[in-house]
Amino acid sequence: MRASKDAIAPCSSERDGSKTLTETPLFLVTLRLADDALILGHRLSEWCGHAPVLEEELALANLGLDLIGQARSLYTHAGAIEGAGRDEDGLAYLRRENEYRNVLLVEQPNGDFAATMVRQLIYSAFMHPFHRAMASSKDATLAGIAAKAEKEMAYHVRHSAEWVIRLGDGTEESHRRAQDALDALWPYAGELFEVDAPMRAAIEAGLVPDPESLRATFDATMTEALAEATLTLPKLGSFQTGGRAGRHTEHMGFLLAQLQYMQRTYPNAAW
Amino acid sequence: MYTQALNVKDEGPALVDAERDAAFQARIDRDEKIEPNDWMPEKYRRTLVRQISQHAHSEIVGMLPEGNWITRAPSLKRKAALLAKVQDEGGHGLYLYSAAETLGTSREELNDQLLTGKAKYSSIFNYPTLTWADIGMVGWLVDGAAIMNQIPLCRTSYGPYARAMIRICKEESFHQRQGYEIVMTLARGNADQKAMAQDALNRWWWPALMMFGPPDAESLHTDQNMAWRIKRFSNDDLRQKFVDATVPQGHHIGLEFPDKDLKFNEATGHWEFGAIDWSEFKRVLAGEGPCNRQRLAQRNKAHDEGAWVREAALAHAEKRAARRMMQAAE
Predict the structure, then answer these.
(1) Measured between CB atoms, does B130 come within 8 Å of chain A?
(2) Which residue out of A35, A45, A66 would a mutagenesis test of the B interface target, given it has the greatest number of B Cβ atoms within 10 Å?
(3) What angle do CA B319, B322, B325 make, to 5 degrees?
């Protein structure tokens, strides 16, 4: 936050998605996980004051708080790995859109309650086994963060699956909305499994799990929930992708405009 | 206060049972707690439902002006703290509604009264949060004013309300300190930040003083509520206590209060303050504050847009129950 743009030039000069020397695999995978958690946490926090029932107001805030907490630990770790003086806020608030490395799924708008719960189910069905596996990472800090996050993500899976089931197997309207949400969001599920060169290097170094090893668990969670919800996965030729390289959907810029508003309006201030 | 409707006259019927009333009052005088299944005068029940539900509504509507800044909070630490704080307010609403339900009024009924504008909530939440400094002011001044009234309510005569208030007060005290810390950070920051803090204090100071309700001379029903230990201090006493506690805190961080008549009286040991514009207070209570319409519209929108979700949850629960019945019959 307090580091000037000049001081972080080696990393922020990256405009086309290509890697620079400072982006080690460990830095990059940590940053990606942090961005996923922050952006989804931010989306969930947008529900505040708008939830369908008071209990869900509290639950959505809980989910958001878990993710923002994970993001804080991950950004702090990424900043330490980078060693360029960027703290959690420097990384969270002061990058350009194409420097955010989150998957496209998490930046998708909240939509209705069905869309929010389907998005949460897809994300947490992947991240729960991911963190469980990352708890034995060769990087001790990542392992520690994952051990805590695993417990949180177990709750996210349970909560979102219960709602997807209620909505899918509820009324005609809720079924239609849940199916629409699944049709709209499933195209972003594939990106969770994407492995590029730095990710491959991180897997081989024992830092993060290979997403392919999580596929069976992910499929089982989704299949079980969707069967009970009487929902069907849409047939797709291919998945949407690009977030890991910094190419986002049209929604991302609006999200960042709000997220970064204070930091951009009052540069170099401490809050 | 969060329960300003107590200053409105109760026009409902008051069945009087002199003997039982006297026995009831004697229990209160002995500092016994009244519990849900105990006999109580109808007016005591009605007053409590109104007070507790108004407090609950204030928590729920209060989430809106603060929630307004969660997505724009200036740091991750502030973002997490604000989200957690607003979540606390929702939690307070939830257990206050539960406390009100023990008196025989359902949450749906209470919520309906809020949505139709029949029930009131604290006037303070009809003011807008325009800058980040407002979030500090809401914690420091609004929560600070609220706890002045709520700490004595931890000893109020109705058991479920008193117990809810103990937990609420702990969290509100934390919010108040957190708010002050936000303001202090701004007051010690750069020129823009200092100006932001001062501007926010200028806008929130008078509305915060109005939270305690009209002057004692105009406050209706105070005596009965005092006797029932539903209210434990008068509006003016609480207001003075708040001013005495808050003014030195503001001066300590170099802020000025927007009151040219504010001065310390050595003889009484109190801060004397200027005349409050009660016509503004009345306008806000009458629904003509800066944000009355927006707050109610937002609550209604959330409720309406959530209808299909609540219906789905109900329908699914019925389907599950029916399936269980079928399985049991097989």
Answers:
(1) no
(2) A45
(3) 155
Average pLDDT, chain A: 93
* Structural tokens at position B13: 């019927």
Nearest to B34 by CA among B43, B25, B225: B25
Domains of chain A in sequence order: 23-233+248-265 (1.20.1260.10)
CB atoms B87 and A72 under 8 Å: no
The alpha carbon of residue B330 is apart from the nearest alpha carbon of chain A, in Å, by: 21
Distance (Å, rounded) from C-alpha B276 to C-alpha A212? 67
Residue B219 confidence (pLDDT) above 80: no
Of B132, B302, B315, the CB nearest to A50: B302
The SS3 of residue B264 is strand
- Summarised one tens digit per residue, pLDDT across range A100-131 is 999 999 999 999 999 999 999 999 999 999 99
Instruction: List A residues 101-120 in contact with B (Cβ-Cβ < 8 A).
Output: 112-113
User: The complex's ipTM?
Assistant: 0.93
For residue B300, what is the nearest residue in chain A, using CA coordinates?
A50
Residues of A whose CB is below 8 A from B179: none
| Residue B309 forms contact with A (CB below 8 Å) | yes
Identify all chain A residues contacting B97, using CB atoms and an 8 Å cutoff: 54
Model confidence at A258: pLDDT above 60: yes
Contact between B170 and B234 (Cβ < 8 Å): no
Taking 90 as the threshold, does the pLDDT of residue B224 lie above it? no
pTM greater than 0.90 (yes/no): yes
Q: At what angle do helices A251-259 and A25-45 cross, to 10 degrees?
A: 80
Partner-chain residue, chosen from A48, A71, A170, that has the shortest CB–CB distance to B86: A48
What is the CB neighbour count within 10 angstroms for residue A111? 16
Q: What is the dihedral of CA B74, B76, B79, B81, to 10 degrees?
A: -120
pLDDT at B18: 87
Selected residue of B83, B131, B186 to mutate for chain A interface (largest A Cβ count, 10 A): B83
Beta bridge partners of B34: B158
| DSSP line for A163-219 | HHHHHHTS-HHHHHHHHHHHHHHGGGTGGGG---HHHHHHHHTTSS--GGGGHHHHH
A65 min Cα distance to partner chain B (Å): 6
